[in-house]
Amino acid sequence: QIMILIKYNSKKIMKKSTIFLLLLLLSSCIAKTKMSLSSSYKNEFILNKNKKYLFIKNNLHTNDLSFIKTVDNDFKNIFGENLHIKNSLLEFENDRFVRVTNGFIDIMKETYSEDFDYLVIIRFVRKPENKDDLDNKFIKVKIDDISKTRVYHTILQIIDLKQGKVVYSEEAISDYKKNFSTGITTTPIKQLYDTYNYLLKEFNKNLDK
User: Fold this and answer.
1) pLDDT tens digit sequence for 32-65
2) Which residue from 6, 80, 83, 157 puts its CA 20 to 30 A from 21's CA?
3) pLDDT class of 9 with cuts at 50, 70, 90
4) What is the H or E stretch that residue 178 is in?
């Protein structure tokens, strides 16, 4: 009976060890995404749902309607019924990255300050560059470099159109790197969601302060 018990326990230990090694191996094959936040402006924004907000999504480059609706609904829930969603701003091409410079802010103030109090602009940068929809495309890599890298940025800025200045700015950055030619990967659309959600979580946290 003792010998049978020893054999049983040995098999049990070996089984657990095998499972542990498999999990360890599997985790090493998963390409992990590093997330970080960056901001170069002081947060001066206080949410007032009685104010009027103009909302624009810039340089998005995705045909995923679910993601687009998610973004719109999230911001409607935050800002309320006074959020107006616009597809493009004046002569600026919305499928190209808009730089929020002093000149840009002056134009926005001159054009929209009579009808709106704030411009809420969320911009997306996806590297490698996303001139076309990246969701269903493989990333090109050199033959001698089996690693695959994607760096996504989601930038949220709120511009006070009456004062003509940035009152909120936050950027979420996700750095994805696959070190092996095989293994579990994060899809581009999931990375887009993850980066956006990381930013939105931080924004909601700042609103609660």
Assistant:
1) 678 888 888 889 999 999 999 999 998 887 878 8
2) 6
3) low
4) strand 165-178
Distance CA 205, CA 199 (A): 10
Q: How many CA atoms lie within 13 A of 140 on its CB side?
A: 3
Cα–Cα distance, 53 to 80 (Å, whole number): 9
Burial 1-23 (b: 16+ CB within 10 A, else e): eeeeeeeeeeeeeeeeeeeeeee
Say what percent of the chain tops pLDDT 90. Answer: 44
CA distances from 55 to 18, 85, 119, 123, 200 (A): 53, 5, 6, 11, 15
Measured in whole angstroms, how far is the alpha carbon of residue 178 from the centre of its chain?
19
- Which tokens in the block code for residue 21? 């090694």
Phi/psi for 51 (5° steps) reads: -80, 165
> Strands 165-178 and 148-160, how do they pair?
antiparallel
Nearest to 100 by CA among 45, 151, 46, 59: 59
Helices in 144-187 by DSSP H: which ranges?
A: none
Tell me the whole-structure pTM to 2 decimals.
0.76
> Is the predicted pLDDT of residue 137 greater than 50, yes or no?
no
Strand partners, 158: 120, 168
